[in-house]
Design a protein that fits this description.
Elements: E1 7-12, H1 15-22, E2 27-29, E3 32-34, E4 45-46, E5 49-60, E6 66-82, E7 89-94, H2 104-116, H3 123-128, H4 132-140, H5 145-154, H6 157-174
Antiparallel strand pairs: 1-6, 2-5, 3-4, 5-6, 6-7
Helix pairs in contact: 2-4, 2-6, 4-5, 5-6
C-alpha cells in the first residue's frame, strides 16, 4: 500500500512493468481484495481507492530490471479497468485530501507510537505535519492491510487515532507479560 507523501521501494522485473518504467509513467497503487497479481486467479477484484505514484528514483539493474523508489501523490477512486495494455490501466477520479488543520492529539499519539519503535519525530516536523499526519500514520503503522485501507479511504483523523490507540495499547501489554526466569541447562 501507498499513502500520499509516502515512499514505496520496488524491484521491477516483469517486462510489463519494465515498459511502464521506461515510459516514465505515473501509476496507481491499489490493494488487491482477492486473488494475486499474476497467474491463475489473477486479481481483478481491487479496492476502489488507491494512490497515484510517481517515479522518484530509477536505477537500471544488470538483469534489465529496475530498482525504483516511487512517491505517493494523491488518492483516487477507481471507476473502470482497461485491459488494452500489457499492464492494467484504469479510469480514475482524483479524491480530495481531508481538510487541512492541526491534529495535536493525533500527532502526540504518532510520536508515542514512533518512540515505542525506537524512532523520534523532530519538533519542527511535528509542527508542520498538519493534514499529512493522517497519511504518515497510514505509512508507518504496522496493522493488517484492511485497516490501513480503511484509513486511506476515509482520510479521517479519528480512524488514525483509533488505529494508533489500539496499537499503543497492544504495545503497552507486551511489557506486562511477566518476567521469564532462565532455567539451568539440562544435563540431558
Amino acid at each position: 500500500m501507498l499513502f500520499p507523501g509516502g515512499v514505496l521501494p520496488l524491484r521491477i522485473f516483469e517486462e510489463r512493468y519494465r515498459l511502464l518504467v521506461r515510459q516514465r509513467l505515473d501509476f496507481g497503487v491499489v490493494l488487491i481484495r482477492r486473488g494475486s497479481e499474476v497467474g491463475p486467479g489473477r486479481a481483478e477484484d481491487l479496492h476502489e481507492v488507491g494512490t497515484v505514484a510517481t517515479l522518484q528514483r530509477i536505477e537500471a539493474l544488470p538483469d534489465g530490471g529496475f530498482a525504483v523508489v516511487a512517491r505517493g501523490l494523491h488518492r483516487f477512486r477507481l471507476l473502470a479497468l482497461d485491459h488494452s495494455r500489457p499492464y492494467l490501466m484504469g479510469r480514475v477520479r482524483r479524491l480530495s485530501d481531508p481538510p487541512s488543520r492541526a491534529h495535536p492529539r493525533l500527532i502526540g499519539l504518532l510520536e508515542r507510537y514512533l518512540a515505542a519503535h525506537g524512532a523520534e519525530v523532530a519538533p519542527q516536523l511535528s509542527a508542520e505535519l498538519g493534514k499529512r499526519v493522517v497519511w504518515l500514520v497510514g505509512s508507518v503503522i504496522e496493522v493488517e492491510p484492511a485497516l490501513r485501507q480503511q484509513l486511506l479511504e476515509s482520510g479521517d483523523p479519528a480512524v488514525a487515532e483509533a488505529l494508533l490507540t489500539g496499537e499503543l495499547a497492544k504495545l503497552g501489554t507486551i511489557g506486562r507479560l511477566g518476567v521469564v526466569h532462565p532455567r539451568p541447562p539440562s544435563p540431558n
